[in-house]
Design a protein that fits this description.
Strands 1, 4, 5, 6, 7, 8 and 9 form a seven-stranded antiparallel β-sheet that branches. Strands 3-2-10 form a three-stranded antiparallel β-sheet. It is α+β, with helices and mostly antiparallel strands and 315 residues long. α4 packs antiparallel against α6. β11 and β12 form a beta hairpin. The two termini are 34 Å apart.
Length: 315
């Protein structure tokens, strides 16, 4: 994904839109986040009720925890590690399709190996077992500090609570998500080197359950947010007599069509989908770009799902 740093823009509508989406996602997913955080703590051994634990501490009595749940979680995650998911490319119906699929399969395998995708799959799967969901992401990186060539990479997301996924998404792979926001914390010294012209007085202070820090308003760190959103551009699609389709705005001149004995068979209204991206604080847009694919490159990994009173619950 080609990224470019932008000048400081006051009152940028993308900042207001990102904050509004974060509030919407947090409100819609509040129950899931609260219960998931309790599940995660319980699986980690924090199994005593707070009232009883405090009373025993005051009485200088021990709080012994025999965590049997962790063993059951590991049974499931170890089975997942033995049969990790893999990207599989299938040809359609011809021999040439099968050969092309084999080439693409090799490229995908190379990306997975070079990115250490196993760690990303395992991390997301472990969170899905212990609290109901996890995430991994697809991104692009420059080959080196002196190169303009980019390569695809699969990365793990260490804390799924920092991801605010589109609450209206219902597909198991998240392919129908319209917006996604991810928060992250970096030292202010690093931030100043990366963005020397940016303000560091105020970071992105909105957050939801689980996405907390004991020093949220921090002296040495600042919180940023990555924001993905979908834009659709209306187009007119043309079907040509040779079976190809092309946008009306990209049609060659009529003389070229006549010389090639090609006619327009049919037209219909359609749209072109674009995934936009920006990195921002609560005051400024720091970077922006456009994702090359048609899906937001954040992949959810869900455990069991159920609908309770029109609300989607992750178990």
């Amino acid at each position: 994904m080609a990224k470019k740093k932008t000048e400081v823009v006051d009152n940028d509508p993308r900042i207001a839109d990102a904050i509004q989406f974060l509030q919407f996602a947090n409100e819609a997913d509040q129950t899931n986040r609260s219960e998931a955080l309790e599940d995660l703590k319980f699986a980690a051994g924090d199994q005593w009720p707070v009232e009883i634990q405090n009373s025993r501490v005051l009485e200088a009595r021990p709080c012994l925890t025999i965590n049997k749940l962790d063993a059951y979680c590991r049974q499931i995650t170890n089975q997942m590690r033995q049969q990790r998911p893999r990207i599989k490319v299938h040809g359609v119906n011809t021999e040439s399709d099968a050969k092309i699929a084999e080439i693409i399969q090799g490229i995908c395998r190379h990306i997975e190996v070079k990115s250490d995708a196993d760690a990303a799959y395992d991390k997301a799967g472990d969170f899905a077992v212990r609290m109901g969901w996890g995430y991994w992401r697809v991104t692009t990186k420059y080959e080196s500090d002196t190169s303009f060539n980019q390569e695809i990479a699969i990365e793990q997301i260490d804390n799924p609570f920092t991801v605010y996924f589109d609450p209206n998404s219902i597909m198991p792979d998240g392919s129908d998500a319209e917006k996604v926001l991810i928060t992250t914390v970096i030292p202010k010294k690093v931030f100043k080197k990366m963005y020397p012209n940016a303000e560091i007085d105020q970071g992105f202070t909105m957050r939801g359950t689980g996405d907390v820090n004991s020093e949220w308003i921090m002296k040495e760190d600042i919180r940023l947010a990555e924001y993905f959103w979908t834009e659709r551009k209306a187009i007119v699609l043309c079907l040509l007599s040779d079976g190809t389709t092309v946008e009306e705005s990209e049609l060659p001149p009529q003389e070229v069509l006549d010389a090639s004995n090609i006619t327009i068979v049919e037209k219909r209204d359609s749209y072109k989908k674009q995934i936009k991206w920006c990195k921002l604080t609560a005051m400024q847009v720091l970077e922006e770009g456009e994702w090359a694919g048609k899906y937001i490159p954040i992949v959810p990994v869900y455990g069991q799902e159920t609908v309770v009173e029109l609300s989607l619950i992750h178990i």
